[in-house]
């Protein structure tokens, strides 16, 4: 886990509900149990400021950083999918984007990564589909000054055939099975009398591994997935263990946020 990813996890899982801000000293203390040193934390924070995710903030505990509105939107979008809030329903209609050609390579790669994160998949270089619109789509397109025509479309054929061709369901399913083995080993390796810092670190690693599926799994409704989908078993395990470990992890966060 690198420092930038750990900071996103920290802000999304803990700081977002605590005002979205923390002192630099607190960020350093909170990432220390993950083996991330202070210079790496400061470098990652500076990078996130340049990218528009964080802004400097004056706090009673000292200089710190606050999540921007752009960052809050991303964290909220991620939280909905990490914790699968509500029942995922599908109307039978696809959300289709036809994006204008993007010549700049770095801009094109950012767009591809962002659309994949939102659950879209490419049918061609400029045409993308997803099972539902995303509230974060407009900020992403506007931020990159990219125009896209949007349609709601109904497939003339079996949507499961399209899904199997568009997304690597075998690869995603295998990744869920592998993650579940690793997650079980991680959680089972915690001592019964584990300190709060150890619990926080274990839960953070559990969350980080699960969060990575946001870039692979579009969150398809059950009627479009194969029978016995491994992601469901993995989801139940994550939700149970994340909730069980939360009190000790949250206490560790609260204790370190209030220190000067």
Give a written overview of the molecule.
The chain is of the alpha+beta class and 260 residues long. Helices cover 54% and strands 13% of the residues. The protein is built from ten helices and seven strands. The strands form two sheets. The chain has a four-stranded antiparallel sheet, with no helix packed on it. Helix 2 crosses helix 10 and helix 8 (169-188) packs antiparallel against helix 9. The longest helix is centred in the last third of the chain and has 28 residues, at 230-257. The model has no long low-confidence stretch (mean pLDDT 91).
List the helices and strands and how they pair.
Blueprint: H1 3-15, E1 21-23, H2 24-31, H3 38-50, E2 54-59, E3 62-67, H4 69-82, E4 94-99, H5 105-117, E5 121-122, E6 127-130, H6 137-143, E7 148-153, H7 159-166, H8 169-188, H9 196-211, H10 230-257
Antiparallel strand pairs: 1-3, 2-3, 4-6, 4-7, 5-6
Helix pairs in contact: 1-4, 1-9, 2-10, 8-9, 8-10, 9-10
Largest sheet at a glance? 4 strands, antiparallel
Total number of beta strands:
7
Give the overall average pLDDT.
Answer: 91
How large, in whole angstroms, is the Cα Rg? 20 Å
Estimate the helix proportion, in percent.
40-55%
**Overall SS class:** alpha+beta
Kindly report how far apart the N and C termini lie.
Answer: 27 Å
Low-confidence stretches: none
